[in-house]
Design brief:
Kinase; five-stranded parallel β-sheet; 5 strands; alpha/beta; kinase; 7 helices
């Protein structure tokens, strides 16, 4: 039974950390994490421009995972203007979909970024260029994650929501 999980937010908000932690709670080869950074920066070595193709590749990888009955976590900045239509198509194609979005101040994203392994890779000035604030998707209600949520609380919530979606698809238990 496949479940699509979308986790969006500004750079440094915790999307990748949350995605990996959620993935660890499920058996091997049952949860696919499709990271925008991995697809765009590592697989394609692509800049995030209007002509970029990483959104198409993210969509194809996620669709593959859904077709194979996996939990598919698509995570990244995934700006609503540039990636909204792709996310809308993926959402329409999945039986069970969960959307989450980090809503953190720029100061909070800088604080979180300072504790990351790649903190030396990006300057605060670069992060300011990528920061877009709260940018909701118009076709779905997203769970809005603010700075008061701990990592454990976010991971617990997503884990519980995935297991709840699974429960909806199980056949009812009948007693003789």
């Amino acid at each position: 039974m496949s479940v699509l999980v979308v986790i969006r937010g500004n750079s440094g908000s915790g999307k990748s950390t949350v995605s990996r932690a959620v993935q660890q709670r499920f058996p091997r080869a049952s949860c696919l994490v499709v990271s925008q950074d991995t697809v765009r920066r590592h697989m394609l070595r692509e800049l995030d421009t209007p002509t970029a193709v990483n959104g198409d590749l993210i969509e194809h990888i996620a669709a593959f995972g859904l077709a194979h009955g996996l939990i598919v976590i698509v995570e990244g900045i995934l700006d609503a203007d540039r990636y909204g239509r792709m996310l809308e198509r993926l959402t329409a194609s999945a039986a069970h979909v969960l959307h989450y979005c980090f809503d953190l101040s720029f100061e909070e994203t800088l604080r979180r970024h300072a504790g990351r392994a790649q903190s030396q890779e990006f300057t605060p000035e670069q992060m300011a260029q990528w920061y877009h604030g709260w940018q909701p998707l118009l076709f779905v209600d997203e769970v809005r994650i603010d700075a008061t949520w701990s990592l454990e609380a976010v991971v617990d919530r997503i884990d519980r929501d995935i297991r709840g979606a699974w429960a909806l698809t199980r056949p009812p238990v009948t007693t003789p």
